[in-house]
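re: ur question from earlier - yeah i can do the single chain one, its not a big deal. heres the input i used so u can compare w yours
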Amino acid sequence: MKKVSYFRQFYIWLESKFSLRGKFIVAIGAIISVSYTVFLYRTSMVDNELIILQAQQQARMLHNQILITLQWVSEHNGLFVISQESVDSNPYLDMPSIWDQNGSEYVMRNPAMVTRELSEYSQNKGLGSFRVTSLQPINPANFPDDFEKLCMIDFKHGTVESIAINDTPEGRVVRYVAPLEVKDSCLGCHARHGYIRGDIRGALSITIPIAWADEKIRANNRSLLFIGLVSFVLVSITLLIMFNTLVVSRLNKLSGAMNSFPEKEPDQLLLPYGNDEIGDLGEQFSSLCDRLVGYQTELDKTRQQTLFNEKMASMGVLSAGIAHEVNNPLGGMLNCVKSMRENPDDHEMRERYLPLLDKGMKRIEHIMLQLLNFGRQEPLQLRKIDVGTLLSECLELLSYKLKGIQIIQENTIADECYADAEALKQIFVNLGLNAIQAMPEGGTLTIKSEMIHQQLQFTFEDTGTGIAKDILSHIFDPFFTTKDVGIGTGLGLSVTYSLIGKMNGTIDVETELGVGTQFIVTIPVHPEHMMEK
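and the output i got, formated as tokens:
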């Protein structure tokens, strides 16, 4: 679990510290570094194995050559050379030297001495060394070291050769030890030592230095490392340029197109798209923008139609009361006209009825003007308004629906302010109608309007039935209503909520069943706060 946690923490750190370009470079750099490290390590291992195999093969070849030399010396009963200052006789031989008839001395060289002296020549040439050794040497110079002693013990159990890699102050060496078998030509000297044909009388030990090869391997590794670093830099720069050109710059264009939409069309910034994944993404984004523009156009049309429908629905709800208000003066006017028609010569009646007809016509004209103003469809726009006057006009329009309902208006806003008159009319009428319909048995509707911290605040408080808690969260949903068919459309509060939102305002609801409901509307009035969301 801790390992997973540490890995996740590293991943979160990588995500937070690096850009996409940085993550790409880190990932590619890590892959190249690991790959080249493995390659370098494997190359070094292979070179080392080849050098060791070559040294081992060289040791076997040298072993065979030395055996041939020893066999030649043995079959010729030793080798005699002229005695010189640098050529000493071997005291461990039965016949260390001989003289010819001229008195010249010749010293004998047995196979072990030949091997030792050839080894000295080889060492001087830097080609390694070799010698004959035995567990029971006659000459102390042939006494084995620890490795040779272990090898000769193994030879007694059937081992045919022993190879080892040893470290020395001068560098690594390959040690090769192979047994020396007694042959017929060897019995002349070794028969008296108890050896018989086929015995293992000792071993031939060969040491081949490979320090020169190790230095070559290190030099090769340094060259490979330098080439790897140069390749890493060149590949990183190339990948960085390609990534910036093919990915980062195009993603920046796509991001800029996203930030500029809808003021600028994506095609203005993204063309040409390209025939790869980012090009496909740009085309898909352009297609998405086209669809969003179409959807927004349809949404605006639907919103305007919904607002208009709600206004018409509200006018329909008010029509019954308004018809009564129109019919009353209209009936009196018809009676006046009928009486005047029946008595055309009655000037006194005409003088009395003409002012009544004028008053009735103005009454009807006033009612119709209110309906026309309420039904007019206009876009939201700011202008200076008298909130108190606007609210009074809406309440006068609502007065036709009042039956047993008392309206109390408390207005503390004295100055004119910037607001959208048509939107406020719709809000006032919708909230007023909603309160009136919530009091079928009559009650009191208290409307407060005040200015608080440069914000208009309107409170509509009724003494109606209240709203149940389980439906309180749905009252602003479109077409949600608890009223009977023909009484409510379910759009009033939804349209009100939308209009308030467009003016960056808020609406809060407090309710209690059987006590009443209070709607609190807060709308900013400064022009800079009146932009659509």
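The CA atoms of residues 427 and 496 lie 5 Å apart. not sure if urs matches, ping me
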